Amino acid sequence: MCGIAGLIHRDGVGSIGAEMTSMLQSLKHRGPDSTGYAIYGSPGRNEFVMRFKVAEQEDTRKGFEIHDEIKRRRAKVDERLKQLGVTIIEAEEVTEYAFRYRIQFDGEMKKLADYVEDVEGTEILSMGNALELVKDLGDAKLVSSQYKLAAFKGTHGIGHTRMATESDVDIRSAHPYWAYPYNDIAVVHNGQLTNYWQMRREFERRGHRFMSNCDSELLAVYTAYNLEQGASLEDSLKQSIKEIDGVFTYLIATKDELGMAKDTMAAKPMVLYESDKLVALASEEVAIRAVIHKEIDTWDPYDEEVRVWRA
Amino acid sequence: MAGVTTTAKDHLSHEMGMHTEDLRGRTQQRFFDISEENVGFGYPDALDVDFNKRAEVDAESLDTRQINSQLRELMKKGYGTIVLKNPGAKHSLAVGILNRLNLYVEGSCGYFACGLLDGPNVKIKGRVGWACGENMLAGTIVIEKNAGSQFGAAIRGGDLVCKGSVGSRTGIDQKGGTIIVGGDTGSFTGFMMQRGRMVICGNAGKNLGDSMYDGTIYIGGEPRSLGVDAVWAEVTDLDRQWLMRKLRMYEMVPAQGIGHFRKIIAGKQLWNYDNLEPGEKKLVL
């Protein structure tokens, strides 16, 4: 049981950081282990935001040497970025182990991701020129204050509160997942995928990377692969219902779209609200009520339903 | 059951077909008090309330436990009409009410709204989440907007009405009572239904009435497919009269009348008593 939520401002930029925090905090009872956000701001010109971690939160409690090790790893990442010709415009140390870099780069993104992630303990959490992906252990209020999300303005976002069932409680298993190596694509998922290992093997043969043992990561890789093959987001969502086994409801966000898909058994919940100004969707209506205080009509999508909204 | 001593009350309940075995240990046997002076107040542990005493509860800043405790306190004081304002789609609201009550919910409820009811009449102005009215024994719940999945799971009695559309697995394990849906319903509606009636004015998803044991489903629209062992049956005059009476009660008679409603029952081909004990077999056959 996890909680997922999504929000789209159709009439421009809104306080997406604060709103997603309210939604996710009201879904805390669906999963208190970790909280994650993928929120989309105004795209910066010719620059990317890269969020990455060089260690897990848990690692920092394990010994004295890890603090020096984190510094060494970060220096190594900086060095490798320099080697690839990346210009770092701004480097922000959000927590001891997680960083936000504004960079300029016009080379191949996959090469950059692979080279950086080769540094021990390092994972790129997100890359894009509109996407800010933040995930850490704890509830929405804690993660929001840690990463200063309250003031974040944007057009749309998705989020996740996790109850760990299939893998560990750590950042690498937390949602959302970035669809490596594609800019600005993120996935959140509620459910269990039963043909995960089988499909993971197929994708690994094709050269895709898996950073965790969490079944939800498959959806990010799967989507990335479909988009690479030229499919639209809607096609990929529809195809996933046929090809992926298990019970799931998941959301995908890109720079200008937000999509959802529900499995054939309709075993995982989702509630929708749609108006000219706003689209809100969440595992439970209580999350929608956290941001919309007037009386509204909401409904459940049915089994095998796929929806895509333009942000 | 050799060696079991029985009391006069035990005999009474056995003759009424209420029990086939003696309940012992922590399980309590409660009997209706039908003595002369208590005629009309049959429910054990039921609170006596007055419909003319009206109260309002603002749930804005309260959590589920506080809301339910407040409702209980009001009923203990004899309030028979309660208006619940700003429910905010919170979960498990108004559960386990075992007496007469008129409850008006001015907003939406979350999961397990009005579960385990035995007696009250509830009107909900908004939407309800999953498993509304679960295990209801008696009473009515009327929802003005849409409902989530597992609507009326395992209800045993009473009327559960949704004027909008509902999610999947509506009336799963239904054991009695009536479920009425004004709009569409999702897949696996009436899954493993055992008794009772269901009325669907709109369309249904796949596998309607899958593995149903008994009971009746009336549908005005089209199901995507029928489930295993669910079969079409002839609509009789008695069915039409009952449908008309029920839908009229909730002002839900479709504009074109009820002539287009069709009926689904269990084919009973999945029924199998071969694995019963010899003693049980006698009872069944």
What does this structure look like?
The complex is a heterodimer of chains A (311) and B (285). With 311 residues, chain A is α+β, with helices and mostly antiparallel strands. In chain A, 27% of the residues lie in helices and 30% in strands. The mean pLDDT of chain A is 91. Among the domains of chain B are: 29 residues, no CATH class; 139 residues, no CATH class. About 2% of the residues of chain B have low confidence. The chains are: A alpha+beta (311), B alpha/beta (285). At the A-B interface, α8 of A face loops of B.
Helix and strand topology:
The complex is a heterodimer of chains A (311) and B (285).
Chain A: E1 3-9, H1 16-26, E2 34-40, E3 48-53, H2 65-83, E4 87-93, E5 98-104, H3 109-117, E6 123-128, E7 131-137, H4 140-146, E8 156-162, E9 177-178, E10 186-193, H5 196-205, H6 217-228, H7 233-243, E11 246-253, E12 257-262, E13 271-274, E14 278-282, H8 285-289, E15 306-310
Antiparallel strand pairs in A: 1-8, 1-14, 2-7, 2-8, 3-5, 3-6, 4-5, 9-10, 10-11, 11-12, 12-15, 13-14
Helix pairs in contact in A: 6-7
Chain B: H1 8-15, E1 50-58, H2 64-76, E2 79-85, E3 102-106, E4 118-124, E5 138-143, E6 159-162, E7 175-181, E8 195-200, E9 216-219, E10 230-233, H3 237-249, E11 262-266, H4 278-284
Parallel strand pairs in B: 1-2, 2-3, 3-4, 4-5, 5-6, 6-7, 7-8, 8-9
Antiparallel strand pairs in B: 9-11, 10-11
Give structural attributes.
heterodimer; A: 311 residues; alpha+beta; Glutamine Phosphoribosylpyrophosphate, subunit 1, domain 1; Alpha-Beta Plaits; 2 domains; six-stranded antiparallel sheet; five-stranded antiparallel sheet; 8 helices; 15 strands; 30% strand; globular; B: 285 residues; alpha/beta; eleven-stranded mixed sheet; 14% helix
